[in-house]
Amino acid sequence: MKKWVYGFIFLLVIISQGRGLQVEITILDNAVEEGAVCLDGSPPAYHLDRGFGNGANDWLVQIEGGGWCNSIMDCSTRTRTHLGSSKLMETPRTFSGIMSNNHSFNPYFYNWNRVMVRYCDGALFTSDVEDVDPANNLHFRGARIFKAIMEDLLAKGMINARNAILSGCSAGGLASILHCDKFKALLLPFATGRVKCFSDAGFFIDV
């Protein structure tokens, strides 16, 4: 009988954690003026859940994963999904795992400022092409998206970060490696503590 009770309690805990925290989306409409747009030309976006208590000045910035596109057809296909257009991004977004605000499941980061950077440029936030081919109307502006979102977060308090981590999983993990130095350069003149980067499954081995 005890096994059934413990199993039921465990199941309830897993289900409650699975729902996660629902965090509304922030659309950076003003970033369009700087050319910081998704593949389809829509504005970039992120989700922010504010920190509290002794984590109010700590920041965890998580880059969304989702592979990448390597052909016009592939990139065009992404414009019809949330990986290429902020118009199709779900809102609110579920925060779970290291993004959770549950101390029991996420004791180290639960009360930090936690950010999910939405991925919609198809090139790991590295692209920066001014011209747009009218034949496909694809915008390759990922580098500008990264810059615009980081500047917005700095203005919202990240400039005073005590500790800051740039992280990501899969393609987001690779992006966290590619942009680690840039992230540190943005924060080190201001941050009073540590600036680190963490890549989760961000190495892709060609075999």
TrEMBL record:
GO terms for biological process: cell wall organization. Keywords: Cell wall, Cell wall biogenesis/degradation, Hydrolase, Secreted, Signal. Residues 1-20 form the signal peptide. It is an enzyme of class 3 (hydrolase). It comes from the Eukaryota. Its EC number is 3.1.1.-. GO terms for cellular component: plant-type cell wall. Its main location: secreted. Pfam families: PAE. It is found in: Secreted, Cell wall. GO terms for molecular function: pectin acetylesterase activity. Transmembrane segments: none annotated. Belongs to the pectinacetylesterase family. Hydrolyzes acetyl esters in homogalacturonan regions of pectin. In type I primary cell wall, galacturonic acid residues of pectin can be acetylated at the O-2 and O-3 positions. Decreasing the degree of acetylation of pectin gels in vitro alters their physical properties. This is Pectin acetylesterase. It comes from Cuscuta campestris.
